Fold this sequence. Notes:
Blueprint: H1 3-17, H2 19-42, E1 65-68, H3 73-84, H4 103-113, E2 117-120, H5 128-133, H6 135-155, E3 160-164, H7 193-213, E4 217-222, E5 224-226, H8 239-253, E6 257-261, E7 267-268, E8 270-272, H9 273-286, E9 293-295, E10 301-302, H10 303-314, E11 319-323, E12 332-333, H11 338-343, H12 351-364
Parallel strand pairs: 1-2, 2-3, 3-4, 4-9, 5-8, 6-11, 7-12
Antiparallel strand pairs: 7-10
Helix pairs in contact: 3-9, 4-6, 6-7, 8-10, 10-12
The protein binds NADPH dihydro-nicotinamide-adenine-dinucleotide phosphate.
Amino acid sequence: MLLREQMFWSSGAALRISASKELNSRIDLETSFLSAHAANIAQGAKKENTERQASTIMMDKSEKIFVAGYRGLVGSALIRRLEGQGFNNLPKRDRAQLDLANESAVAKFFLNEKPAVVIFAAAKVGGIKANNDFPVEFLLDNLRIQNNVIHAAHKAGVRKFLFLGSSCIYPRDAPQPIPETALLSGPLEPTNEAYAVAKIAGIKLCQAYAREYSANFISAMPTNLYGPNDNFDLLTSHVLAALLRKAHEAKTRGVRELVVWGSGNPRREFLHVDDLASACLFLLERYDSPEVINVGYGEDISIRELAELICDVIGFDGDLAWDATKPDGMQRKLLDVSKLHELGWHPTISLRDGIAQTYDWFLKNLRS
Ligand code: NDP
């Protein structure tokens, strides 16, 4: 599965090819946006989203919900959950049908479709190497797509918007478990700074719409995720998916030793993406504050324990070897989820069950 890598390179090329084309339409759009914006302020249109309900709003099954990035790990889990619960008005657009970096196309889509609810699960994502090597693309593409979608959602009168960030928005030396109040309290981890800065800008833009226009735009920060549709490409995948694939290959090839990067000591938290989807729907119905809220499993595990668990689930009974020449990264990364727990949401999928379910999906989708 080289999808992420291909996506990265193809979007980089598209960015260059379409740069001059975009410039002209961008100037027109910016001019019309600025005049419309000035007119809105003059007419007191600031109040257009002021009817924000503070209490729980249960979503109607026919309510139009747009999941941006619906083919990704998170987006596909959201669609599974929404469809599983009977939601039947879910306009779907992949990148070929709607490039979220194209401002005028996004504006047109929102004005035509007028979704009531938006979940923003689209992003240019990648591992440390891609983040570190291509900060321009990570910053610019993410700023573009989120600015386009957030602004268009506001113009179209979307009643609820959920922006998904990431735990990497928090400072490198944040206290553990990381509380929401750690945001902007210190320097970021340099290797993914560009991505984190873009995500922080998205949070701030949602908060600005909430403050200036009383928009009900909220932001959730998920921890490390895994599950069906994860990226199993060893060059670009995250640790759990990479270990799962390596253990599977070691087992099927009859290899006796599985080499794992680092010392195995760092601790990480993992949430099944179906639990994240459940938390997102919970937040859409029960959370109306522009303050960010963490979404995590609430417990962490060492990479060594994770590798042993994965080998056990997969049935690889060889030895683990640790490649200490590879970096460990942060020693611990665990989100403080007490705010979400106090609201009444808890995860339901144990790490063992989640890994087993993901491995089933991996086996079924191996050939594709
Ligand atoms: P994926 O890469 O799996 O999915 C991202 C989706 O965004 C893809 O469907 C992709 O489309 C789409 N997309 C990107 N750029 C564009 C564009 N210009 N136009 C249209 N669609 C676009 O990412 P995840 O599902 O893992 O991540 C989703 C969100 O969740 C991100 O904000 C991420 O930060 C957050 N998150 C993820 C975590 C994780 O462990 N995975 C952890 C914490 C947060 P296409 O299919 O065409 O490439």
